[in-house]
Design a protein that fits this description.
mainly alpha; two-stranded antiparallel ribbon; 14 helices; globular
Length: 355
């Protein structure tokens, strides 16, 4: 790898990471506006036109707030915990394919930080590490409510990583690869001439399991038991304030964007437009870079739909009890995931025949 390749890789990483971080202020504004609309309130409307600068005001507030550390805490783990939650969310972004390729300096550049042959396994492995930040933060805070929230998070993550993984097994069986980029490439065109050739039409049950599990994996309502204010004050981040709390907040929204990106890649064609192949679009626009721009906009639009769904569900459904949360995973989603894998295997055998 020469110096130009290194420079291009570094540029890709910086641009994509900075772009994804912008999800945080946008989602803060959207979440407040949607909540206000559902509850018949105006929402942010004071800071800047239409309240658009409210996220900036929040960031300034967090930066200048006092940041006390409670007595009798494990200072090292207490300080590291927020960043241990944010780091896995940032690392997962590296494996998400945002678009096919662009041409820069006479070189074809894939719009993906790291094109790994086992990118799906990488995403599942790195994504599961986020629970350590919550565990360390809850335990190191020396607060019983924080500790209970951390323990809840651990059992919740363990429970819902199983159906999440089973949902992706069906996708691996259909596509025959662990590469997220190859999965998206295989979803080009149409299915039967009238449906988009997207994973959801091959794995509808797998998508439903993945969607439900993603709410639990990101600690979003109706599965936000690790931080339920009615029982645990603020759960695992009760003792956090200032930028440490903001970092936990950033990690949550970054996890939302990566989960939305995974659903887009696995089940909704990634960067592909419905009913139109990439080659048709390229013939129309006549430029690989213009095609790449259209693919990026398509990918972002699909991710935005899922992010809006997360917000809508939060302000629509009531919170589950903790026993209901675990019951749903172990007696419903995991058996359904196993059934989905078995049925997928039988159908693929019948359609392709024995080797």
């Amino acid at each position: 790898m020469n110096a130009l390749d290194v420079a291009i890789s570094a540029l890709k990483a910086i641009v994509i990471l900075v772009a994804v971080i912008q999800v945080v202020p946008v989602m803060i504004y959207v979440e407040r506006k949607v909540a206000a609309l559902i509850q018949d309130r105006p929402g942010p409307n004071r800071v800047g036109p239409l309240g658009l600068l409210q996220p900036v005001a929040d960031a300034v507030k967090f930066l200048f707030k006092e940041d006390p550390i409670p007595l009798n805490t494990n200072r090292l783990l207490y300080t590291l915990a927020p960043f241990l939650s944010l780091l896995p969310a940032c690392l997962v972004i590296a494996a998400l394919p945002i678009a096919d390729k662009a041409v820069l300096f006479g070189k074809e550049i894939t719009i993906q930080i790291a094109d790994l042959d086992v990118s799906l396994i990488y995403v599942l492995a790195i994504g599961s590490l986020g629970v350590y930040g919550i565990l360390f933060g809850g335990w190191a805070s020396n607060n019983k409510f924080s500790l209970i929230g951390a323990l809840r998070s651990a059992s919740q993550m363990v429970s819902y990583e199983l159906p999440l993984g089973l949902a992706t097994v069906g996708a691996v069986m259909v596509y025959g690869t662990y590469s997220l980029r190859e999965m998206v490439v295989l979803q080009d065109g149409t299915l039967g001439g009238f449906l988009p050739n997207w994973g959801i039409f091959y794995q509808p049950l797998g998508f439903l399991i993945f969607l439900i599990s993603s709410f639990a994996e990101t600690n979003r309502l109706p599965f936000d038991l690790p931080e339920t204010e009615a029982e645990l004050v603020a759960g695992f981040h009760t003792e956090y304030g200032s930028m440490k709390f903001a970092t936990f907040f950033m990690a949550e929204y970054m996890n939302l964007s990566t989960m939305a990106g995974m659903m887009t890649v696995l089940f909704f064609g990634g960067w592909h437009l419905p009913w139109i192949t990439d080659q048709q679009v390229l013939d129309w626009v006549g430029s690989q870079n213009l095609l790449c721009l259209i693919q990026v906009v398509t990918y972002i639009s699909k991710v935005a739909v899922f992010l809006f769904l997360y917000v809508l569900i939060r302000w629509t459904l009531p919170r589950f009890r903790f026993d209901q949360l675990l019951h749903l995973a172990w007696t419903n989603l995991i058996p359904l995931g196993l059934i989905n894998v078995a049925v997928s295997a039988v159908l693929m055998y019948l359609m392709r025949g024995p080797a």
